[in-house]
Design a protein that fits this description.
The complex is a heterodimer of chains A (894) and B (179).
Chain A: H1 2-17, H2 21-29, H3 38-52, H4 56-69, H5 74-86, H6 90-103, H7 108-120, H8 124-137, H9 142-154, H10 158-171, H11 176-188, H12 192-205, H13 214-230, H14 233-243, H15 250-263, H16 267-280, H17 285-295, H18 325-341, H19 347-350, H20 352-355, H21 358-375, H22 380-384, H23 391-411, E1 423-424, H24 428-443, H25 447-460, H26 465-478, H27 481-492, H28 499-511, H29 515-523, H30 532-538, H31 542-554, H32 558-589, H33 592-603, H34 609-627, H35 634-639, H36 645-663, H37 691-694, H38 699-713, H39 718-730, H40 734-748, H41 752-770, H42 777-791, H43 796-806, H44 811-824, H45 829-839, H46 847-860, H47 863-876
Helix pairs in contact in A: 1-3, 1-5, 1-7, 1-9, 3-4, 3-5, 4-5, 5-6, 5-7, 6-7, 7-8, 8-9, 9-10, 10-11, 11-12, 12-13, 13-14, 14-15, 15-16, 16-17, 21-23, 21-24, 23-24, 24-25, 25-26, 26-27, 27-28, 28-29, 28-31, 31-32, 31-34, 32-33, 32-34, 34-38, 34-39, 38-39, 39-40, 39-41, 40-41, 40-42, ...
Chain B: E1 2-3, E2 12-14, H1 21-31, H2 38-44, E3 53-58, E4 61-72, E5 88-97, H3 106-121, E6 127-133, H4 137-145, E7 149-154, E8 166-172, H5 174-178
Parallel strand pairs in B: 5-6
Antiparallel strand pairs in B: 2-3, 3-4, 4-5, 6-8, 7-8
Classes of the chains: A mainly alpha (894), B alpha+beta (179).
Amino acid sequence: ASSLAAGCGARVAAYVRLMPPKQLQVQQQQQNPQVLPAKEANLFKTALKFYNGKKYKKGLRSVDQILVKFPKHAETLGIKALVLNSLDRMEEAHVAAREGIKSDVRSFVCWHALGVLHRTEHNYPEASKCFRTALRFDERNDRILRDLNLLQVMMRDYTGYIDTRRKFLEQRPSLRANWIGLITAYHLAGNNQVALKTILTYEDSIQPVAEPEFEHGELLLYKNLIIEQMGDMSAAIEDLNKCERLVIDKTQHQEIMGRLTHQAGRFEYAEKIWRDLIFKNSEHYAYHQALILTRSRIPYGQGLPDLKLPATPYDRKASLPHLNDDQVATLESVYDDLAGAYPRSNLVKRVPLTFTRGESFKRRLLAYIVPYLRKGIPSLFGDLKALYTDKDKVAAIEEVALACETSLRTNRSLPLKQDKEGEQESPSSMLWALFFLAQHYDRLEQHDKAFKYLEEALNHTPTVIELHMFKARIYKHAGNLALAAEAFDSARKMDFADRYLNTKTTLYLLRADKPTEADRMIGLFTKEGENPVIYLAEMQACRYELEKAESFYRTGQYGLALKMLKAIDKHFVDIRDDETDFHGYCLRRGALRAYYRMVEFEDDLFSQPYYVRMAKGFVRTYLALHTKPAAPKAAEIDEYAGMSEIERKKAISKKKREDARKQVPEPKAKGKGPKGKQLPEAKPDPDPFGEALATIPDTLKEASKYITTLKLSVPKDVEVHILACDLYARRQKYLLVLNSLRKLAKFVSSDPAAYRAQMFSLHTLHKVLEAGGVTHPEVRQVIESEIRDICGGKTLAQMHEAHMAQGPLTPHLRTVGAEVSVLLDPSCAPAQGAGLVDMVATANTYKDCVSAYGLLQHTIANPATTDAFQKACHKKFPQATLFAPPQASSSETR
Amino acid sequence: RISTSMPHLPVEYGNVTPKNVGQVRVLNQHIFPIVYADKFYSDLLLPGKADLSRLAYYNDVLVGALCCRLENEKAEDIAVVDPSSKGVRMYIMTLGVLAPYRELGIGSQLLQHLLDLVAKKYPHLEDIYLHVQTSNKLALDFYAKFGFQNIATIPDYYKRIDPPDCYIVSKKVRPAIEK
């Protein structure tokens, strides 16, 4: 903020100096308090100098000196506000700015200062108002205009932004940046036509560019992007051809041409371009994706309903549309040719595995995995995992892998035909085959088989760290998170130099709900001499904070969970703020397309997975706090269950001590910060356990804020609407419940969780109507008619019956079915409980039984049934600690 | 891939470091019936002792390790043994290769490394020696191939394994040098 206001200061100085003598006289005659005598005027200039030189404390002293004599001098008060703002003394700054405005309501300095204060506090609408008021009193103030302009684009007030941008251009049409500013303004506002026209006008106004040069080339490609977005592909292709000579990055140019010709349906041409690009770089996945699509003559973006330009379908995440046999045969021969031309390319061998089927797939798969087994590349399974969505391929993979195993066991060879006689596989091929099979069976939830293969592999070569890591993974999948963390820690101990192992151990510890140990673990690799928790917050390590928040949520420590979530929320505020720097930077650098992508990214910021997880975490935690308001330290009782009274007291006081230590940063060595900069002293945390956060009066209102954001940023996320139903029902906002139910409707048939939310919400609405909870007649009518609409004239019981008859009766649906049945008719609880015990036999993983277990424990509450369920689960999933009989829970090892 | 007529595995060698000593522990625990104490591993990391142990890697996986120490009957602490003083011996604490990687020349290369090291750096040693369980025919043959001889038998040397007796197997260093 300081540098932003610097120009303003200079402007004030000019203002003071250039005051017309006549006006000066008049003001002096009236003893105007806004005019300073010579001595103070000089002092004022000194204060400005200090402020511009970032010597805020000295600046403050000079300003205060003036104010002793002239306490109502508005401009001095304005500068004081700016100085205090830079010193982070916001309250005093506000007082100064307001007093300044009170003494001279027409002081643009004070209005500008107040705007800067609001901007510092992220109150952009207020800041914008202040800047506009300031401009009323000094129309042509460049500095304020620039500040306002930045705010407008930050607020995406494009009408205002274009307006200000045009003013800049009018003032200085010779400046390239002013042209670029207006062009991007129109483009961001979605007015491609005018943006294009402005580019053309600009091009006419400058000397023709003769030599390729980055900035101009970028402008040309940006223009091309706008033409592409306007949808006329022939025009775009023609334009791109024209600018080829002046673009430096030929590969980019070629990629765009490939995309444009594909969009124009000129498949042959497009195919040739993508082949050329593969010739340049055969390991670029997008090139292969594009080749497959163009070679198969599949229109651009087919099967990708939400394709947003200039995003491309040439993306690893974009799955291939279904290919017919002819298309597959053609592609196979294309790739056989490529394999001849690029024998060393990995992708040329890997890509056909995505589209081939049957025997051809098996043959290629074997050829693909043999080098991995021979060289001992641990990532083989991770590489092939993407193929596991196809059942036939899974079977084929198993067949090939087992064939390798058998062949290695019987004659130490791999089943490849072209292998020479008289040679053997090295011993480690067996190891990697065993490792692959272990991972394969783990993926299929056959944990016993996975363990068997893993044990054999460990016995073969126990020094492979990946095997130990994988052991932890099976434990995790089988439901023993504590053992998983232990196993990962022993993997870690095999290589202390490996940051990945360290980080991953931390993750496993958090999953096992051991946050204190996790902090210590991650501390091994964070900056020396700094508290890891504080350091990671500075580094915006969202993943760590998120996992920790989720762990605190699981253990019912809601205050601490909220604290972590708040920290992540803050990162996103900061990321949003960081955008400020890029508007100027990108335009100055001429990186226009990157700039455009940056703005797009920022617009979509709240759909980032970490944000979504964080916001959902807030909603869930607040809902939990609504169900069970925070009682001080209630959480700890659970944590130390099973300990004797004395042990527990000891443990609790130990934890308190540890927590306190955790909160107070260790003393830092001075001058240890980057570039010898002294680090700011950490303020003591006023709320170390998040108790203040957990005891806010209206948790539901707080949760609603996040739901509102999520509904806009990720409208297709089922979970958001499920949470919304629950939240709005508790807030008695029934119309909003109905709105969420509408959003859920299309998921209900396939997603049991959505179905559950629907039935619970409908049940609540029925109850409310019966009890006369809605008095407004029109609202009541709307609710009734909407319910009729959703239920299609059936009762809830009839609906439920019909839904369950549709199936498929997955464990999830059966659990939800039981829950809804009991909700509608509590008397059926015993029968439903028995049904859940039967369900265990059909469960694939222990996770399938977790929510049913909760239902039995808390809702159906028949100890005999719960016991039977737990025993059945324990028998089927012996590793899962959740179902282990109490005394054996920790000793169960393999 | 390996030729069946001339089995040989190309391996790479490395030293024990504080970062990877955990792997050596896993390897030794797997190969030997004896569990070595923490001191065994921390001694490997003593300053100046790096070349007394050697690790064999195949495709970046640890498959074999040789761990030795210098001994002097008069010195209490092996950390301060002066290799040029009189009566210093080289003791092979462990030399092991994971079972699937045996008979491929790895053990021989590790031992040869030691012999070369001694010839080059410690020519004044008395001998290189080790303990071998009396029943371990494979090991006895292996060391005999390199000129080691049984010089004594210690009954009841091992406490937890059977048979409890061992041979002292030794190779004189000095005569070979003087020749």
